[in-house]
Amino acid sequence: MSRRNKVVLAVMILAGIIIFGFSLRNVNLNQMARDVVHLNMWWLLVALGCIVLYLGLEAVATKMLIQSNGDRLSWRDAIRIPLIEQLFNGITPFSSGGQPAQLVALMQNGIEGGRASSVLLMKFVVFQSMVVINFIFSLLIGFQYLEEKIRFLSWFVLFGFLIHLAVIIGLLMIMYWHNFTKRLISAIFIPIKHFVSKERYTTWKVTLNEKVDSFYQESVRMKSQWRLLAKVALVTFLQLLFYYLIPYFILLALGKSDVNIVMVTCLHVLIFMVISLFPIPGGAGGAEYGFSVIFAQFVGNNSKLVLAMMIWRILTYYFGMFAGMVATVVKPHKVNRVKVVKNE
């Protein structure tokens, strides 16, 4: 980690402490202490198991993609990749640092840069597709609840969905309408040259065209490996399912056994969309607020609500970051190339 990343990490941990402290301002600490004592630790362990499975299944997807081309990646190194992603997602705006950090980590394993980029590209496309599919399903179930209880938040949810949908549409356009997409990008860039220098305009346009061409070339290979992508999609669907189930098991740990698992899971999908809108690393502040507002109807007791939010945030954000800190100091092993597999 660079010095700058370490500073941001320290700032985010400090920000989390401040947010937790602010959330506790109107909470009876004696009551919260009693709530902690009466937590059902078995359900809490299940919630912890869900985040472990979430990270573990991403490691499975990564290993599947790496080994499809004959590179043997150890399980230790496969698990290291999503942990590093979690750390750098957590300390960069809009989780933008996760992809470059994974690329560096894979190259440390001896995987050629182009091959590593291809693996991450395939994983990103599948992940975003599963996020959008899950969201559409959840929107059908949970949006009416948001509209009735907390209407103002429903607009944030829809906006977050539109951003993820736009990403998928953009990727599909490059994959299937490459030439049209390049012409469209050129048209969009026309007004930009009036606001930046000629040198910067040219650099941006050339760089973007290179990335579009690179993605198109990789997408051609991706489409020929549809069986592999289908398997990775299934693993990714299960990965996200375990993540989305975490609040349900936290509520069970708090003694709320009458909650609807489908509704709670769908609402967590919607929170995921809200978090993606906040430019602050980890969606700090917005994530805690969104959780508290959405799940207040299920908990009722302010002490239990804050406790649920804190447990949820520790599991879904800080757990991955601290695990990622450990992963960055683990020495990577070089991959062994054992065979060459034809595209499926």
UniProtKB/TrEMBL annotation:
Main location group: membrane
Any one GO CC term of the record: plasma membrane
Enzyme nomenclature, EC number: 2.3.2.3
Catalysed reaction, written as an equation: L-lysyl-tRNA(Lys) + a 1,2-diacyl-sn-glycero-3-phospho-(1'-sn-glycerol) = a 1,2-diacyl-sn-glycero-3-phospho-1'-(3'-O-L-lysyl)-sn-glycerol + tRNA(Lys)
Signal sequence range: none
Record localization: Cell membrane
MF-aspect GO terms: phosphatidylglycerol lysyltransferase activity
Membrane topology recorded in Swiss-Prot or TrEMBL: Multi-pass membrane protein
InterPro entries reported in the protein's UniProt record: L-PG_synthase/AglD
Annotated keywords: Antibiotic resistance, Cell membrane, Lipid metabolism, Membrane, Transferase, Transmembrane, Transmembrane helix
An individual GO BP term: lipid metabolic process
Highest taxon of the lineage: Bacteria
Membrane-spanning ranges: 7-24, 36-57, 124-146, 152-177, 228-255, 261-284, 305-330
Transferase keyword on record: yes
Record's function text: Catalyzes the transfer of a lysyl group from L-lysyl-tRNA(Lys) to membrane-bound phosphatidylglycerol (PG), which produces lysylphosphatidylglycerol (LPG), a major component of the bacterial membrane with a positive net charge. LPG synthesis contributes to bacterial virulence as it is involved in the resistance mechanism against cationic antimicrobial peptides (CAMP) produces by the host's immune system (defensins, cathelicidins) and by the competing microorganisms.
Family: Belongs to the LPG synthase family.
UniProt protein name: Phosphatidylglycerol lysyltransferase
Organism expressing this protein natively: Pediococcus pentosaceus
Gene symbol of the encoding locus: mprF
